[in-house]
Amino acid sequence: MSNFNYIPEEIVTDILQRLSSKSLIRFRCVCKSWRDLIGSSNFARSHLNRNVARRSNRYLYAYHQSSIDEPEHCQYSLFSTETFEPCLNLRHPLWTREKLRIYGSSNGLVCISDEKLHPNSRICIWNPSIWKSRTLPNIETHLSDISTTHLSFGFHPELNDYIVVRIVHPYMGSPGVEVYTLSTNSWKSIRVTPPWLNFNRIYSTAAFLKGTAYWTAKTGSEYKIVAFDAGSEEFQELMVPKKNSFTALLVCEESLCVFQYEWERLEWSGEWTIDSWIMKEQSLNKVDSSSLGKSGCNFPLSSSIDNELLIAYMDIDIRDEHRVVVTEMALYNIESKQLNRTGIRLKRLRDRGFDGGAYIESLVLLSD
Fold it and tell me: Is the pTM of this model over 0.90?
């Protein structure tokens, strides 16, 4: 009878790897061997790799209007990628009164901080699917008269580590750059910065790809892309095709995508386009000019899913003979040029931007 009931360990492991993070957290209580298995770093890595390969246990996240009847009631939530129904409301893990904002998502982790960043804002790396978080140490900044603070977050495959890059930009002079690594739970200040790293504005549009943080910066009326490799600690300045066109960044199918807008095209009266480029071998190759329909400023969000761009799609809603502009998350297929509206109503954050992206479940941070 004991032989009949015995299931080989590799089969048990294979079965458990197919389950959601929420179920695995519960199943740790079954027995000690399951607790040790599910809590191991090898199992967490295999579980994540399976989700990525099979495109399972994935969601969309968005800062949205959570109630149609209460327009001011807004929050972050996870949504189904199939039905676009809300699956989980995201509440600040530190239980603070501050509104949170997501500053990057990677392998089931999100980097969050205050909606309005300031030099003393607490930063947290959070896995909402298992409700585990790591609060980062405070940073002592040596800059005064800070204008803006910017965060970028992602995974560095060569270092096998999660990285947070913080940029503090003074009103005058070059930005200060600090790098946090999850494995050491510590910050490192980048003392040597190139002389050209001096911009009068850094935008929240950013991307993190293969250990390199990219962000949009502006000098006078000209836009540029700044790249920082967290491993080599080297900076690079990338020139954009059209210097005076607003530039947005996101990661699409493991490549950096650059989008540029001609502001004179942003009119309600007709169709307009976004020119897009893909970074290959440190050079930008134009993909096409994509028409996104007769509406306002359709804006690419922080990531893509299945070769579809996540965009903030604006439309006109007629209510009681009044024109109301509504913005919802939509998926734009790059190849077929088809637009799939989700019904997820986005709301502006304090800096008047919209936020949303892709999220995948994992067990990262479970063993902390």
Answer: no
